[in-house]
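Hello,

Our lab assistant flagged a job as stuck in the queue for most of the afternoon. It eventually completed. Since we weren't sure the result was trustworthy after the delay, we are filing this so someone can double-check. Below is the sequence as submitted and the structure that was eventually returned. Let us know if re-running is recommended.
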Amino acid sequence: MFSSQVSFYGRCAAVASAIVLLASCGGGGGGGSGFVPIVAPAQPQTPVVVTHTVGGTVTGLTGSLVLQNNAGDDLKLTADGKFTFAAALTEGSAYEVSVRTQPLWQFCTVTKGSGKASADIGDVAVACSAAVAQVSTLAGSGTTGSVNGNGTAASFYLPYSVVVDKSGNLLVSDTATNLVRKISPAGDVTTFAGGGGSGTSQNGNGTAASFSGLSGLALDSTGNAYAAEFGGNRIRKITPAADVITIAGSGAIGSLDGHGTSATFNTPSSVATDSNGNIYVLEFIGAVVRKITPAEDVTTLAGSGTAGFADGTGTAASFGQAYGIATDAAGNIYVADSGNNRIRKITPGGVVMPLAGSGQIGATDGAGSSASFSRPGGLTVDSDGNVYVADTGNSLLRKITPAGVVSTLAGQPGVLGAQNGIGAAATFKQPYGVTVDAAGNLYVADTFGNLIRKVTPVRAP
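-- returned structure --
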């Protein structure tokens, strides 16, 4: 009995330390009703949040595509296949997939791209297809001359090279007049540099300067232009303020390496620049590719110096008479090897390899050596690595993908003219120059048509 009482009072004492007694623990006075323990309140339950992913499949993509979900979650794609947005959505939330940035020279369409997320979404479909080329005339009357004015009120005389700056202004080398012309985005044509002397290489500002056999143009990242003199065998620099100076070449014919004007060139036909400030010069008769550093040191990058055809590294390679040169963002160099009817690729280390062209004259589209060209002239490279070629002998505008697949954007093989239109409905007259802006618009120096043409990517009708 005693032990049970001890146990009972012990339990009461333990309970008393944790709860409030509402009545006597041990009986006694009448009316005692025992005790009622306080029960701890129920803890709130954390709601379970269910989320779902949104994704699908892209097909036909050959460039860089940026998709967006609900105007906030961006996803960059560069190849066909499955995709999934990074941000998951709460169950029941709305989703809406759209194209934020189209690939250059493609248009992409989204289907099954909107709804509410009741489960993981995996059936959004994005289909990309090639744009078509709409050709228009930006400037030039088609008659020979050097008249300034707006659009077709202006005239050119054998425009050879064309480049575009970050503000959308064009510079054109007007070879027969030895003038560098400028075209504003509104189509206003003015003379930017040249005209100070006939057949000389005179330094100076604007029209006080002169050129000898003006040929290719290039721009650097700060807006300086570089001009190759086919006849003067020099490389000239033109600042944004139109100050013209000679940076390399003595004027003598040759392919001698050296510093600045101690070096020599042999009929430089085209120039290009890279992101490090180097300038690359293509010699038409010299059959070599030269490199000029920012310090104005001139070296030979590739080519044996004898016209021919051979792949290889440095002087082990050879070129035919070549007109066009361009660079890509990775520092690779592309040459329109006109004498060999091929497009060649050169690595920054000077390794020369084929990109496209069989070597036979033709206008066949296809991959690599299954394609054909006829005396390709100028070329340019867009931010996706596509190469655009003014196929001079065919009077065509061609495109080459990074994988070497060649297609025809505009023109009719061997048909000369100045017809505007889409694709094969348009005609050119032996164009040499081509450049591309950030939006993928192309500008063509339609040389023997004495016109500057604009080529815009549009959806196929």
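-- support follow-up --
The delay was a queue issue, not a problem with the job. The result is valid. Helices lie at 2-16. Residues 367 and 405 are 4 Å apart (CA to CA).
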